[in-house]
Amino acid sequence: MERILTRNVEKRDSETLAVYEAGGGYQALLKALRELSPDQLTDEIKRSGLRGRGGAGFPTGVKWSFMPKDPKKPSYLICNADESEPGTFKDRLLMEKDPHLMLEGCLLSSYAIRASACFVYIRGEYVHATRVLETAIAEAYAKGYAGRNILGSGWSCELVLHVGAGAYICGEETALMTSLEGNRGYPRLKPPFPAQAGLWGCPTTINNVETLVNVPFIVERGADWFLGIGKAPKNTGPKLYCLSGHVKRPGVYEAPLGLPLRELIYEIGGGMLRADRPLKAVIPGGSSVPVLTAAECDVDLDFDSLAAAGTMLGSAGIMVMDETTCMVQAIERIAHFYAHESCGQCTPCREGCGWMEKVLKRIEAGSGRNEDMDLLQSIASNIQGNTICPLGDAAAMPVASFVTKFRDEFQYHVDHKACLTGPRVREFAG
Amino acid sequence: MPKLTIDGKEVEAKAGNTVLQAALAQGLEIPHYCYHPGLSIAGNCRMCLVEMEKAPKLVISCATEVADGMAIATDSERVRTARAAMMEFFLINHPLDCPICDQAGECRLQDYAVEHGTGVSRFLEPKLTLSKAVDLGPHVMLDQERCIQCSRCIRFCDEVTRTGELGFFQRGDHTVIGTVPGKPLQNAYSGNVVDLCPVGALTLKEFRFQTRVWYLKNTPSVCAGCARGCNVIVGVGQQQVLMTTEGQLDDRIKRVVPRFNEAVNGHWICDEGRLSYERLHAAPRLDRPQAPRGTRVEWEDAVTRAATLLRNAAPGAVGAILSPRLTSEDLYAWSSLFAALGAVRIGAQTIVRGEDDGILLRADKGANSAGVRWILGPDATTPGVVSAIARGEVTTLLVVGDPLDPADTFSLDAAARSRVKTVIFVGAFLSGAAEAASVLLPSAAWSEEEGTLVNFEGRIQRVLRCHLPRGEARPGWKIASEVAAACGAGLPHWASAEEVLRSMAATVKEYRGLDLQAVSLLGVGAPGRAA
Amino acid sequence: MYGPDFEIKVDQIVARYPHPQAALLPVLWVVQRTRGWVDLASEEWVAERLGVSAAHVHGAVTFYTMFKQRPSGKYHVQICTTLSCMLRGCDELLEHVEKKLGIRAGETTPDGKFSMVRVECLGSCGTAPMLQLNDDYHENLTPEAVDRLLNGLP
Predict the structure, then answer these.
(1) Complex ipTM above 0.95?
(2) Residue B46 is nearest to which of A346, A354, A362, comparing CB atoms?
(3) Given its phi and psi angles, is residue A395 left (phi above 0), alpha (psi -120 to 50 degrees) or beta?
(4) How many Å apart are CA B434 and CA A382, to the nearest integer?
(5) 10-residue mean pLDDT series, chain A (430 residues)
(6) How far apart are CA A376 and CA A383, in angstroms?
């Protein structure tokens, strides 16, 4: 398949403006400013079927159409570069290796929603990507792609890089805004929605990095071209898949939406890390989604297929586990993540995530009881749907799915105070 | 006015209100912690979840604006399950402190746990251990373990006092509230966070461990600390166990909390006002008639002596200085006596400290300065009387002391003392001019008598009696009436403060047409008057 | 506070936003990069400069895990321990580093050269196990690679 989103990443000096322009970069911006109105651009994106690549899969064009056509206050675009979902590392690749693609996507999208500034909120740990972006932004300004009266169009847009400081919750769009405004990263109640009242009460759209990098291509080649990739009408376009865990070739791979999971693991990914350790489970969408057993892995990696299979595409962080994995240890590690990252604002998530972690730790340590499995399901169920933001659901769903699908392992821990998988495989880069 | 259905009953709500507000207005208590009518909406406790028709998830009623045709269920199976779930989450790390926690008896965690909880704990894990006695400031203690992170206290300091001393620190279930070193919770309204705290995380140092709240006898009244007249609830002790040395029940005031009055103080009171009851113990009480000072006499004797001294004084030689915290009833009674005696030079003290702070505190500490102006007239000032003393014109002085703060009672300096031959003192405390008095008549303190006070906006409000006067003390209006009778002045024989009010309604312009019912417990603006 | 250059930098940052409070995280970063960590005096300075309370700034510093409230080692070793790294041996990597440096996670060596912490997913799952040493990622680690890395630090 032709590499679209990742066409530049292996070029030498791919992060420089010179290389980007040499490959046709910023032509889409020029074209849009000359030939399309903001609403026409939005319509084209709507037609393409592009859905958000950050995790929720919301149709991007529809999201843009919520923005006011005649803003009385400044409108803003936020590029969500806070990539922190376990198993996900695609945005990092794009930012480090093709920052101008992202910036062009940001500028085009800002134009579509009539934004006067685009804030790029990047996680604090991505120091290298931050430095690359700082240079790229300076280059873009120097060339007149950003700032006042861009390319003589009359439209002005600032690009501001804003660095986070270690909080997964700031990837949630309202927490991101609260953080950007200079606060603890607490999510907000909705309504109001960001398009009505977002950053400083102004209309705001938040898009993921990968979502935005699709935009220049749609402008350049058209919505029909995009519809021809993947599975029209609702699962279209190229996708970056993050493969990790017990596979021979973990990494970021580009393929059309709808790539079969088995193809990703066994062909593109080189198969299981060790041939004598077969596949046991896969988490397909970053840790916040229900797990799939090996038997459930005959599924395509797109939004609707995975939803039909009772899980989600999410951030496309595909984490592969072989038979040596103790599922109790795995979910305990995941539960620890959510307990650590919970902002603490609302009761069910604050208390419930900590509780689930403690129960799982206790089971893992050999003090589990028969009642604990139902208890975990109950806690998970009590969190879900009752929180301010989806982090609570993100913690609850994996726990519920692990306990449901691998109950025998939990029971084994309770009965034998040991892992069903046998003694831990203690390998370091084995 | 949007019409919605709550539990099948049609309710008309105010536009812009939330479902929670609409329900509370109907007397339907949807349980909640973080919502408070005086603060912004936080929506973090998740206790007020209700079912809304057509919504897939439960919604928080505190943040859901009412809309025409909305249908809400507050007691469905789903809602009850969610509430029980939230209760469980609140309780898992909450310490089992009820036996030693001040909040017991007025604790929402207790109340909701009984009403909405499951009654059984499923939590086997070690509870979080945090600091249990953090000194936040001059008046407030924090127990981090009890905190339910509702953020009311933080919002108060951000939105009402705008001092921002409190914040959330750490994250997740390790979140605690606190102050930064060197910046304690020290604003003039810090005590309100204790009232706001739905649990026993924030406690008032002055009230900690004093008594159980169910032993308090609560009386609505008005603070006499300044001219704002914040509405309060005075809690008097009732415990049988602790006896004073004189064998009385310990019915001292244990605490004072704000009483909501939209027109005066909203939901709050200042710390000075909240703790002003401590002033009642700042000096020894004058609780028996004395004449001369140090010699106990019967009331009749003391009253007769006072009357004799007043009648025998030369015309124009009598002066009177009164506290601006006296009730209008007391002021009216004294004023009537002075009118009957004739040519009495009357002055009311002016007590001014600090500045109006734009929130509640007034620089004018005279809780009834407006009443003074209406009843004694704008020219009744202390300097006038003091100059008359200095000129040798006033030789008999009647001083009516401060009913709240002994330190504010009028005091004679050495020069004045040498010029005034006779001092008659009426007051609750042995302070100020009491030292120089030859006749001392014990009067009821602020919390011991009924009456009305007029605040700086001309609002007439009721002070109620919270506990009996100490010893043989009597209400000021009654003392004035008895002295008047002994002087042969024909004042009405009032049997109650209400009867004095009736007299005022007939003769004081600003009190025209008023009775207790009209004044009510929320006060009333005087008909056709300016302050 | 730390000289005129520092204040110029802060002013430049504040100018980027419509409201000064939004400069909170960027300014705290400048403090930390200048001083190595964020102390209470710095928090107070930042609060004053941006027009927020000291408690607000402290709340932010204690919320975001990358802000250090005490000095760390010259080399701050941050080992990712979330699921994908766990599947590729991060627990064993952690043990290896603990043994090598003689400290547990959360501690600093007595000579102040190394501090080590566990962190959550660093977005490097494809090259697990890995660690972040100060600003830089070190990926696809083996015991030998870790030893080479740590031994080679001045």
Answers:
(1) yes
(2) A346
(3) alpha
(4) 68
(5) 92 97 97 97 98 96 97 96 98 98 98 98 98 98 98 97 98 98 98 97 98 98 97 96 98 98 98 96 97 98 98 98 97 98 98 98 97 98 98 98 98 97 79
(6) 11
Bridge partner list, B400: B322, B426
Task: Indicate the residue type of A196.
Answer: Q
Name, in order, each residue with C-beta under 8 angstroms of B246's C-beta and a sequence gap of 6 or more: none
| Widest CA span in chain B | 88
Residue position matching structure tokens 């995280």: C25
Binary contact (C87, A244; C-beta < 8 A) = yes
Domain containing B145: what range? 98-204
Q: CB under 8 Å to A135, separation ≥6 — which residues?
A: A15, A99
Cβ-defined contact of C55 to B167 (cutoff 8 Å)? yes
The alpha helices in B258-298, defined as continuous H runs, are: 271-274
Fold classification of A327-416 is: de novo design (two linked rop proteins) (1.20.1440)
Fold of C3-63: Arc Repressor Mutant, subunit A (1.10.10)
CA separation, residue B194 to residues A145, A181, B190 (Å): 56, 30, 8
Asked if A353 and B172 come within 8 Å (Cβ–Cβ), the reply is yes
The answer to whether A286 faces chain C, any CB pair under 8 Å, is: no
| Domain chopping of chain C, boundaries | 3-63, 75-151
Using CB atoms, which chains have 3+ pairs under 8 A with C? A, B
pTM: 0.96
Cα B49 to Cα A146, A192, A310, A387, B29: the distances in Å are 46, 18, 27, 10, 12
Contact criterion met (CB < 8 Å) for B148 and A348: no
Looking up tokens 């006092």, which residue turns up? B161
Least Cα separation, residue C57 to chain B (angstroms): 9
Measured distance CA(A211)–CA(A79) in Å, rounded: 9
Q: What angle do CA A163, A200, B59 make, to 5 degrees?
A: 100
If contacts are CB pairs under 8 Å, which of residues 61-100 in chain A contact chain C?
A: 74, 83-89, 91-92
Contact B181 C40 (CB under 8 A): yes
Task: Tell me which residue of A57, A78, A5, A93 sits closest to A284, measured CA to CA.
Answer: A57
Place of tokens 């030859």: B438
> 3-state class of B399 per DSSP?
strand
For residues B189 and B230, state if they share a domain: no
Please count the structural domains in chain B: 4
The CATH H-level superfamily of C75-151 is Glutaredoxin (3.40.30.10)
The Cα-based distances of A286 to A256, A290, A407, B265 in angstroms read: 19, 9, 22, 53
Select the residue from B19, B61, B83, B124 to test the A interface by mutation, using most A Cβ atoms within 10 A: B124
